[in-house]
Amino acid sequence: MEKVREKKISSYILFVVDASGSMGAMRRMEAAKGAIVSLLLDAYQKRNKIGMIAFRKDKAELILPFTSSVELGEKLLKDLPTGGKTPLADAFVKSYEVFDRELRKNPNIIPIMIVISDFKPNVAISKDYIKEVFDACEKIAEREINVVLIDTEPQSFIKIGIGKELADRFGFKYYKIDDLSKDTIVNICKDLLN
């Protein structure tokens, strides 16, 4: 008889949050921050790690590198600026790069990307921001990263956001949520982790 150590597989959850000036960025940000802190409290016991990218103006930034430290999470998330345009393509590219790095170090992690946005890109990396978003999502899908799109575009007759289209084309999970709260985000994440 030999002892076999069971290796626990960790989930790496990356929040990708739209911090642009479009509708309710502050409220979206508060809901996302609350969810992150709540999931960090949970993550420590389960060996999961949580990270966050915020995107606004002309670029996406890794605000919180993957961690299971609640203190670090709270410290880095404290003063997040909001406002400006929506560089959605850069957000997807940066997310892909972050996960690609982690998966090279540890191919056994479960990569989960949660994007909270109204999916109305208006900043290009070079020239065509819609094509750039689709190209980046294609790479993400090929890398088999689990993607959840939380669409906060307000209900109206005219749909401008491309969230549903991305979900349909690449098989991403899609939620349309008008009134985003910390609890709705936490529940979506917990469903994914069970």
Automatic annotation (TrEMBL):
Q: Where is the VWFA domain?
A: 12-192
Q: Which PROSITE patterns match?
A: VWFA (PS50234)
Q: Which domain of life is it from?
A: Archaea
Family of the protein in this entry:
Belongs to the Mg-chelatase subunits D/I family.
Please report the name of this protein according to its UniProt entry: VWFA domain-containing protein
